[in-house]
Amino acid sequence: MRIKCDAAKEKSEGVRPKPRIAMKPKKKKNNQKLKLNITVRAEQRNKLEQMAAIEKRSVSNLIEVMADERWERLVEQQGVAYAETVAKAMNLKVDMDNPADREKLRRAVLELVAEKKGLKRKRRD
Question: What local confidence, expressed as pLDDT, does residue 54 receive?
């Protein structure tokens, strides 16, 4: 038996054993949404509860949907305001409600970008 142990030692002399490190346990993902505590007057609470009943939603879900819709409107307004700022900087008179004017702005911006990149776009005027 002693011979086997010596042979095993000779084989492993030049090789370091890997240190055993305990793996960190993975954290579980928290799928729960954070709660938002809102103080609402009784009148507003009644209105929200009625709206939620009509739409067959919970009050919290109704508030979430309303917030999402409001956010989308704000983003759209900001996009229009940004486009108007760009048009003004390019000395273009455009009405963002008019699809033809929006296309005019889009083409002007694309031509400007193409010029900067060294590409020349053919105008279709």
Answer: 93
